[in-house]
Structure formats: structure tokens, C-alpha cells
Amino acid sequence: MLVLDGVSLLDRVLTATTAATSTVVVGPVRTACRPVQWTLENPPSGGPVAGLAAGLAYGVAPVVVVVSCDLPWITAADVQNLVDGLGEHDGFGLRDTSGQEQQLAAAYRRTALAAAVAQVGDPRDKSVRRTLAALDVAWTEPTRAGDDVDTWADLDD
Question: What is d(CA 144, CA 59) in angstroms, rounded to the nearest whole number?
């Protein structure tokens, strides 16, 4: 719900993903800049892998773009680059400016992502890195689009 330059972080991500065939937001329903499907992870507050499982229950597109809502600098061009960069890989994701791989800012083949999530069983409080570790994921060069905002100080970078 954080607002940066008059636009919520959620709306920034929704603007970056306007080319999507369908969009699912995992979280409580709130006002958004465009229509989306809403769902909650099960159990509520079960962590990001539970969120992936909940979101994967919707849609049928062979490519799924996963974007966390704490990426204020991601653009539609960045999202398109993720899809275009997938190639023969299971996934293609952003690296932040420090070089850190952002599993929650990536395009994935639905079948590969769904299989990885299903393999963990109960997704509650599971590690995203461990869940997706077996996937063949390629990464961008470091980019500000991959910089997430975990603290107020992150906005000053």
C-alpha cells in the first residue's frame, strides 16, 4: 500500500504488467488501477511460495510472470524483456543492482513453476530459493528494475 510519487507500489507493478493476458494479485482486495483477479494464499500469510501456489491456480498461459509488489522501478519494457529472454529456460529473471537474483521478478514456464511448487507439498513458510532451485533460470544483467523496497532507506538509493 506504500505510495511513491503518487502511485502505489501495487499500481506500479500493475502498470508494468498491462500486456498480460490475465493478472492475478495474491493479497487482500484493495483499490487498483485496473481490473485483476484477487486471491489469498492458503494459509493466509503463508509466505511467498504459498502465494505462488495460490496465483498458479488461475490462468492457463504457458508463461507466467511473477512480480512482487515491492519493485517500484519495474516497467512494461522490463516485463517484456523477461518474457522475451525466456528462450529454452524454465525461467528468466531480474537481478538487482547488487547482482542478487530476484526469483519473484521473473518469467517462468507455467509447467516448470507449477511442478516446482507442487513438489514442496504444503507451501506454507517454504523457501522460494529452495523451491525453485532445480529450475533452469537465466538472469539479466544487474538492473534497477530488480531493486526491491524492503525498508524506507531502500527508496533513497
Answer: 29
